[in-house]
Amino acid sequence: MVDTARVRFDELVAEVTNPPAHGQDFDARLSTGLYEVDRKRGAVRARPRRRRGVILLAAALIGLAAVVPAAILGGSSSAPTPAELRQIGAVIERWEKADLLPPWPPEHYAREDLPREVHERMAARRSAVARAVGTDDFFRSADEGNDPAAGLESFRRAEDTILVDSETKVLDVSYRRTELIGDVVVRVTVWQGETTAFWDTDEGRLIKRHKTDGTPVYEYTVRRADGGWRIVSVRQVETSSDASGAQYGPSTPHDQQPIPSHDGSL
């Protein structure tokens, strides 16, 4: 009788641990429980086998499954309010104005280069804004090679024209996403306009003024800090060329030809 029970026990163990013909895998089969033989009564009964490690792992996974979506949803729910989007737009516009190539100082129109103090003043103004609106990392990257006056000189040499006016305005700030670390990514459409002219040396005045504008699109990453917002990074995702020189200004309908940005970094 004992031998018969032992044989039956071995058969049942093999039955529940070997992969069955219909393809159910070993772990799934094993999870239904192992059969035990009650030798005293000579009967067979099924009893789930307690597997503490598996139970603890399952509990941990269930907890993780609840936490991760909560973290993701928590990030999504931290989208900025309309009032905060306006604040973000104001910070970005402040930087856009500082980053825009400034006009050539009128008192130096007759010169083909700018005095050292002009270089220093323009660079200092841009650096001050970069530090005020950005994180430390943003300031370091934005301030590297900062010399707006050198850009003006290069522009004049290349085009033989003077940049006599430049202006910009943030047209739209739209929420894109919130990163898990809390940084907010926004898509920003900006209007930029400039006026150029030639310098008539004989007459000592500007001639042939020309206006042009465009609406580049940027992706800004910003961070809540000190009760406000700071810029973490910015990359250009689209630029545009002016298709109509007769139309100028942020509030004036005008034709623009969008041009996707391929390198995508600033």
Layout of strands and helices, then pairs:
Blueprint: H1 2-17, H2 26-30, E1 35-38, E2 43-46, H3 52-77, H4 82-99, H5 116-133, H6 136-143, H7 148-159, E3 162-178, E4 184-200, E5 205-214, E6 217-225, E7 228-242, E8 256-260
Antiparallel strand pairs: 1-2, 3-4, 4-5, 4-6, 6-7, 7-8
Helix pairs in contact: 4-5, 5-6
Question: What does this molecule look like?
Answer:
By secondary structure, the chain is α+β, with helices and mostly antiparallel strands. The protein folds into two domains: 2-69, no CATH class; 80-260, Nuclear Transport Factor 2, Chain: A (Roll), CATH 3.10.450. The protein has seven helices and eight strands, in the order H-H-E-E-H-H-H-H-H-E-E-E-E-E-E. It has helices spanning 2-17, 26-30, 52-77, 82-99, 116-133, 136-143, 148-159, and strands at residues 35-38, 43-46, 162-178, 184-200, 205-214, 217-225, 228-242, 256-260. The strands form two sheets. Strands 3, 4, 5, 6, 7 and 8 form a six-stranded antiparallel beta sheet that branches. Strands 1-2 form a two-stranded antiparallel sheet. A hairpin with a 2-residue loop joins strand 6 (217-225) and strand 7 (228-242). The model is unreliable at 19-62 and 64-77 (pLDDT under 50).
